[in-house]
Request: fold
Amino acid sequence: MDWQEAAKRVEDQEPYLIDMLQKMIRIDTSIPPGENYPKFHDLVEPEFKKSGCETRRVIVPDDKERMAESGLSGPGENLVASLKNGKPNLSVYAHIDVVPADASWTRDPFGGEVEEGKLYGRGTVDDKGPIACVLGALKIMHEMGLEPKFDMDTLLCTDEELGGHYIAGSDHLARNGYFSPNILWLDLGAIEPIF
Reply:
């Protein structure tokens, strides 16, 4: 592999990453109510497909009582994007929902504004920024003809911000065999290493 070429392509992806992240932020995936998950998937699913992934949408079965208790009104739609090559499996996990914005925001929380080299918006770090990075990495791998060392299942899940195992899309996917024992968890944001 030509590492210099790969590094150059990463640098060249900056406009793509910013554009994708802005588009993701502009889709209000606040939970509750959790109504715009399909709209979010309409944006990112074609990008996964361009990079050679097969995709499927997995919906958490309706539970009217759970939805009423949690203030949910949208479908619990998760996206699974798979890149298979016959190697050991790796699950790449991120969630697409965000906590509703409060009055403390000084910018539009769903505007995706860039100011002095910083991009502002709800979910920028947790987890829409990491999702944009996965899309960028898959794009580069596809363009360069690089084969990952793993089968990759990118799992974009719902309802993580509500907490509770019975709500989250990740719980539904785990119970139905979508997660492997090898997980790259994109939800860590800016947490410092503990060792």
